Amino acid sequence: MEGWSPFRIHRWTLRGHPQETTENAVDVGHFGVLHGYKMVHERAPVKTSGPHLFVGYGFKRPTIRLLGRELAFHEAIDVHVWGLGYSRVHVTDLSWGLDLRLLVMATPLDADHIELRIGLSVRDFRESPRLPAGLRLLPRAMTDHLLARALLRVYRSEVEQDLEIWTHKRYVDPPVLATGDGPVGLYRRWVKQFYEDPSIAS
């Protein structure tokens, strides 16, 4: 954690399953359709090794209002998934020189409900020449607090777009896929290792 701000956490309770929420990591098609990202591309293809899954993406997100300014972000993200309950997303913003860590943690509460938590941490960004000079003059604790709070609000809004889908989603096997959905089949084969009876994953 050296050089990073403390994590800010937000949580939801919802109808869903960790397998479904984690499937977002490979569902590249929803980034543009649901979240409005532009120029979405795979920087590194999906790779699995035991309980670890990795994939990298790049995209431009819609302009967002942050700390009183309208800003455009061009992001590169590395997604590391361990099992079905823990993902760490490293976000590098190529426009403003920001580095973020986003944690996504899904915990089953019963057969039909989960608690979903996200956590956000920001790397010390005061050396970035692309950020407003006024921010670099403020004490680090203040800038970390302001920036992490504002960015968490952005990610909360995006997760809440996903919540509508997760809450009403119906599991279909084999999945009915559209062009651009991503390697959902590969993902579902990978998740079978986490079930005592692999047929449960189907």
Overview of the structural elements:
The protein is an alpha+beta fold and 202 residues long. It has a single domain (8-197), classed as Naphthalene 1,2-dioxygenase Alpha Subunit, Chain A, domain 1, CATH 3.90.380.10. The protein is built from five helices and seven strands. A seven-stranded antiparallel β-sheet has the order 1-7-6-5-4-3-2. A hairpin with a 4-residue loop joins strand 6 and strand 7 (113-122). The radius of gyration is 18 Å and the shape is globular. It starts with 7 loop residues before the first strand and ends in an 11-residue tail after the last helix. The model has no long low-confidence stretch (mean pLDDT 86).
Which consecutive residue ranges, at least 5 long each, have pLDDT under 50?
none
Distance between termini?
38 Å
- How do the strands line up in the largest sheet? 1-7-6-5-4-3-2
Structural class computed from helices and strand pairing: alpha+beta
Strand content: 35-45%
Number of strands: 7
Round the mean pLDDT to the nearest integer and report it. Answer: 86
CATH architecture: Alpha-Beta Complex
Total helical segments: 5
CATH first level: which class?
Answer: Alpha Beta
The rough form would be described as globular
CATH fold naming: Naphthalene 1,2-dioxygenase Alpha Subunit, Chain A, domain 1
- Helix percent reads 25-40%
Number of domains: 1
CATH homologous superfamily annotation? Naphthalene 1,2-dioxygenase Alpha Subunit, Chain A, domain 1
Task: Please trace the helix and strand order, writing H or E for each element.
Answer: EHHEEEEEEHHH
- CA radius of gyration: 18 Å
